[in-house]
């Protein structure tokens, strides 16, 4: 629902300064519970898209991040994006392992090393997330296929959307989750360095399966540290 509201804001249905309908009206319009409506408003407030004025209502803010959002990124449903990533990125990782390039390995190792320095620092969460997305983009650039690297680049761009930033922040809010992501990235680099296509594909597959779990099945993710 938050994504639907942000789409409406980005496309001008609700202009800056406009007062949004109350949570009861929103719930009826979008056929969701009032609790879901309140949670969506909170999510938009967290990413700076709206301002909640207590006793007055919720107003759309003129927010640069909202104005800069491409409609194509908003149109991607979270489940579809993860499904696409799980289909494409293991193959990309395997391809990178067949074309072992020292420069690619160096760039990936630098990202992993910096992530390792930040993993225990909650205040560095924003930078940690940025490095995580950059890892996937740099990995794709090393596959030697401009079409595939472009597709992964679109995945990364979509996850730069404010709502995805919020989702990813929640996914790696614990140190265990951040460590899980870091460990997966290290294993991917090791597999590529060794030219092990099967292992590169396997680790990426497991890595993205964990992303799926933490986003769509959070209760199950408590049994094992999530990654993203």
> What is the terminal-to-terminal distance?
22 Å
Large-scale geometry: elongated
* Helical stretch tally: 13
The chain-level structural class is mainly alpha
Instruction: Estimate the mean pLDDT confidence.
Output: 82
Describe the 3D structure.
The chain has a two-stranded antiparallel ribbon. It is mainly alpha-helical and 228 residues long. The protein is elongated, with a radius of gyration of 19 Å. Mean pLDDT is 82; it is low at 64-74. Helix content is 70%, strand content 4%.
Secondary-structure map:
Blueprint: H1 2-10, H2 23-30, H3 34-46, E1 50-53, E2 57-60, H4 64-67, H5 71-75, H6 78-98, H7 102-118, H8 125-141, H9 146-158, H10 162-171, H11 175-193, H12 197-216, H13 218-221
Structure summary:
With 228 residues, the chain is mainly α. The protein is built from 13 helices and two strands.
List keywords for this structure.
228 residues, mainly alpha, two-stranded antiparallel sheet, 13 helices, 70% helix, elongated
């Amino acid at each position: 629902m938050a994504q639907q509201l942000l789409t409406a804001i980005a496309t001008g249905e609700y202009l800056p300064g406009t007062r949004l309908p109350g949570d009861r009206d929103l719930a009826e319009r979008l056929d969701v519970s009032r609790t879901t409506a309140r949670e969506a408003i909170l999510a938009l407030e967290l990413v700076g898209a709206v301002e909640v004025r207590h006793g007055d209502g919720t107003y759309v803010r003129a927010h640069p991040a909202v104005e800069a959002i491409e409609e194509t990124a908003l149109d991607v449903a979270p489940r579809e994006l993860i499904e696409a990533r799980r289909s494409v990125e293991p193959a990309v990782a395997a391809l990178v392992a067949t074309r072992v390039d020292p420069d690619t390995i160096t760039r990936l190792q630098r990202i992993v090393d910096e992530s390792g320095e930040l993993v225990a620092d909650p205040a560095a969460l924003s930078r940690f997330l940025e490095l995580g997305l950059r890892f996937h983009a740099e990995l794709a650039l090393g596959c030697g296929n401009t079409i595939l690297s472009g597709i992964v680049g679109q995945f990364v761009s979509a996850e730069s959307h404010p709502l995805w930033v919020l989702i990813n922040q929640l996914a790696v809010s614990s140190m265990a989750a951040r460590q899980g992501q870091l460990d997966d990235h290290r294993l991917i680099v090791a597999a590529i360095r060794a030219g092990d296509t099967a292992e590169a594909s396997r680790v990426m597959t497991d890595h993205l399966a964990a992303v799926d779990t933490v986003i769509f099945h959070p209760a199950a993710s408590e049994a094992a540290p999530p990654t993203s």
